[in-house]
Amino acid sequence: MPAKSAAQQKAAGAALSAKRGDTPKSKLKGASKSMVESMTEKQLEDLAETKRKGKPEHVQD
């Protein structure tokens, strides 16, 4: 499942880093904080590997 926005891709990258132990979970903010707990490493990889080119910075729901 590719990321829908650059912000979502960045949050997934931060959450993936914390899940792998490269970044302390206490450093996470906002969406990445909940992503690390609710998503698997594979799901985070899928979102984080999305290319940002052509993606909007934020998407309105």
From TrEMBL:
Region called Disordered, residue ranges: 1-61
Compositionally biased residues, Low complexity: 1-18
Ranges of compositional bias, category Basic and acidic residues: 39-61
InterPro entries noted in UniProt: DUF3008
Protein name as catalogued: Protein of unknwon function (DUF3008)
Organism expressing this protein natively: Brevundimonas nasdae
Lineage, uppermost ranks: Bacteria, Pseudomonadati, Pseudomonadota, Alphaproteobacteria, Caulobacterales
